Amino acid sequence: MHRPDFANFQRAILRFALAVWLITGAGVTQAQNAAALLSEQDYFREIPQVFAASRLPQDPQDSSGANTLLDRNYIRASGARNLSELFMAVPGLQVGLSAGGRPVVAYHGFSGQISQRMQVFVDGRSLYAPYLFGGIDWSAVTVPIDEIERIEIHRGSNSAAYGANAFLGVIQIYTRAAVQASGMSAQMIQGNNGIADRSVRWGSSDDNIQWRVVASQRGDQGLLNRSDAYKTSTLDFRADLQMSSTESLMLLAGTNTGRFGVGSPNSFADPVRDEKKATTFAHLKFKKLVDDGQEWSLSASWTRDHGLDTYQIPMLSGDALDMHNNRQANRYSLEYQHYNTLTHSLRASWGAEYHRDQVQSFELFSTENVQKNAAWRIYYNQEWKPLNEWTLNAGGLIEKDLYSPQQLAPRFSINWKPTGNHVFKVGYSSAFRTPSLFEQKSDWRVRDENGQTLYVKYLSRGGLVPERVKAVDLVYQGQWRPLNMTFDLRLFREELTRLITGEFYVLPNSETFNAVAYDLRNNANALQQGAEYQLSWKPFAGSTIAFNQYRARTTSPKQSIQDSAPRHGSSLIWMHRADNGLTGFAAYTKTSPITWLGEATPADEQKNLLVSLQKTTKLDQATVRTSITWRRPMGQFVEYREMQSLPRSVWLGVQIER
Fold first, then answer.
1. What is the pTM (predicted TM-score) of this model?
2. CB burial class (10 A; 0-12, 13-18, 19+) of residue 220?
3. Is the pLDDT of residue 41 over 70?
4. Among 80, 386, 412, 463, which one is most buried in terms of CB atoms within 10 A?
5. Within its chain, how far is the Cα of 359 from the centroid?
6. Nearest-5° Cα angle at 390, 386 to 396
7. pLDDT tens per residue, range 448-467
8. Cβ distance 407 to 399 under 8 Å?
9. Could you give the CA distance from residue 299 to residue 284 in angstroms, rounded to a whole number?
10. Can you name the residues that pair with 171 across neighbouring β-strands?
């Protein structure tokens, strides 16, 4: 069944390669003449290095696959309050809001309320949450937006570098070094719909040690037609110690506590209430610079997630059923990483990691015992440049945990640069996602006051194996320097197997009111083919116009899987920075209908318009930034699930830095 589709994909690649060959061939002379007028410094300034692809600092033309970089200028200009909002205009990424303060970010779909098929890091620490379905809980992220230096998105599978859960994509978030945040800063954001954000930063630096600490609050009234107002409080700390000219130590720590409105006004089984959540972490990283081409690091981290959700369900007898949906999860991680320039044409990165997960929840597992899992992985990735026009990236990873068989994730790519401004990349990768503890061992049931089972929600039969994806892609990156224009295109074919989704099964010898239970099994496959591209144009100094688009066709025997991947999405962005300190930003995004996994009804076509205007003023020794941001859903559409929608919002911001 897949052979004809793959043949069409091959023909599409050949037609595309021929078309771009003609374009680039016709423009070679013009590009070479323009290149002669540019210094080497110009090239390095316009082409930043990327790290997310292979754990090596690489020129984007030499890296494997497709990458998107969001720098600090873009992050600030966007006026975003929530981290997830920054990804709305990235091709292939879908952003939803399941409830106030609970964003969902997915790459190519296949996601529910937890983004479990994508890996996210902050300064090298994984944000993977081991409870429930495993994945990224965006509401628990502690990093303040204003402390982010840049974000790299690797659009495509990358288990070869990062292991389990780098299934369809990787997001690397890098915060500013403490020396960049010295002094004091205070920020206030106020708007309609209860928008009220506050932030205070204090930092200091000397020759050997730099540190900064940020305290912040954020909250609003959430979505319309829901009682889901939320408020989070965050404390984030970073210290950088320069032990010698070649040795450094970085310490990061933080906590995020929040109250999130949940429940439905007219539901007895799910009443309106507040859920409490807290996340605390510590991350220590030692780095040793051996020489200009060699560096190794050793890092250790600990992350703790805690949730508390208690409420009562009235009974026909007049009594009330006490519900306690509580949890506590810990992840411990130790990692060694090394990269080295082996020869003038060969560079490599390698390393090993061990992490241990612990989850305790009587409600989810019907026991007070701590559920444990541990995994180790080793990886190797290399970049070989036998000629200036050719770059070969190859690598792989081996991983094993307590519940899954050993997994191998290879990756290969060949990059060809016919000119200095154009590059073609052809790559293959195989990636995996290991099941979470809940997926393997769930026993979630409702009991009466005597401990008698009334209803079984989830009852795992165990034995799950990792999901797999095989991806083939063709990437083209081009620059037309005389026109100040860049273009990035990815054609992809992703074959997903052993996907884990839910199904009902009959309980043997059931003594409860329901004779069936819900379980998660490796029961779905999918094939996704499509294209995504980014076009950026700088018509004049300080101004950038970007147009991004994603189109895909997804087929699956399971309708819920097929419906969870949107068919298309697009965005148009304009950003301008004037010499007088005025910055303008406008973004229009659109995504086709999607039914998020676990939902019974589809979310309508999403259309959003965001406009932000900012002004930077110098006042004695202080810098004052004022802003106004307006976000409007275009039309009345369902946000994530039926009966809820996004409000129109406007907020004012003032920040004073000294």
1. 0.91
2. buried
3. no
4. 80
5. 23
6. 80
7. 778 888 888 899 999 999 99
8. yes
9. 6
10. 120, 153
Which pLDDT tens digit goes with each residue over 240-296? 999 999 999 999 999 999 999 988 888 888 888 999 999 999 999 999 999 989 999
Does the structure show a pLDDT above 70 at 7?
Answer: no
CA atoms within 13 A on the CB side of 365: 24
What's the Cα-to-Cα distance from 360 to each of 160, 297, 334, rounded to whole Å?
31, 32, 22
Question: What is the secondary structure of 407-444 as a DSSP string?
Answer: EEEEEEEEEEEEETTEEEEEEEEEEEEPPPHHHHH-EE
Q: Supply the pLDDT for residue 258.
A: 94
**CA-wise closest residue to 498 among 471, 472, 473, 470:** 470
Q: Look-up: residue for tokens 């408020």?
A: 231
CA distance 287 to 39: 33
Give the pLDDT confidence score for residue 321 in this predicted structure.
85
pLDDT tens for 47-78 read: 478 898 999 999 999 999 999 999 999 999 99
CATH number at residue 152: 2.40.170.20
Question: How far is it, in rounded angstroms, from Cα 176 to Cα 591?
Answer: 32
| pLDDT of 24 | 40
C-alpha distances out from residue 382 to 62, 423, 475, Å: 11, 19, 19
Contact residues for 333 (Cβ-Cβ < 8 A; gap 6+)? 125, 126, 299, 300, 301, 302, 353, 354, 355, 356
CB 278 within 8 A of CB 321: no
- What are the DSSP calls for 156-192, one per residue? S--HHHH-TT-SS-EEEEEEPPGGGG-EEEEEEEEES
- In whole angstroms, what is the distance from residue 283 CA to residue 121 CA? 12
Q: Which residues contact 6 (CB under 8 A, 6 or more apart)?
A: 493
b/e 543-570 (16+ beta carbons within 10 angstroms → b): ebbbebbbbbebebeeebbbbbbbeebb
What's the whole-number mean pLDDT along residues 353-377?
96
Residues in contact with 445: Cβ distance below 8 Å, sequence separation at least 6, in sequence order: 366, 453, 454, 455, 456, 457, 459, 512
For residue 99, what pLDDT band results from cuts at 50, 70 and 90?
Answer: confident
Strand 119-122 relative to strand 170-175, pairing: parallel
Q: How many domains does the chain have?
A: 1
Separation between Cα atoms, residue 451 and residue 447, nearest integer Å: 5
* Residue-level pLDDT at 132: 80
For residue range 291-336, list pLDDT tens digits in order. 989 999 999 999 999 999 998 888 777 778 888 889 999 999 999 9
Q: Which domain holds residue 89?
A: 2-657
Burial class (CB in 10 A: 0-12, 13-18, 19+), 72: middle
301, 286 Cβ separation under 8 angstroms? no
What percentage of the chain exceeds 90 in pLDDT?
74
Q: Given the DSSP bridges, would you call strands 273-291 and 320-324 parallel, antiparallel or unpaired? A: unpaired
Nearest Cα neighbor of 66 from 359, 540, 426 is 426
pLDDT, tens digit, 9 for 90 and up, residues 516-534: 889 999 999 999 999 999 9
C-alpha–C-alpha distance, residues 474 and 532, integer Å: 11
Quickly tell me which residue has 């994530």 as its tokens: 640
pLDDT at residue 9, as a whole number: 45
The terminus-to-terminus CA distance of the chain in angstroms comes to 63
DSSP 32: H
User: Which of 81, 70, 72, 278 shows the shortest CA–CA distance to 187?
Assistant: 81
Give buried/exposed letters for 494-508 (b at 16+ CB in 10 A, else e). Answer: bbbebbbbeeeeeee
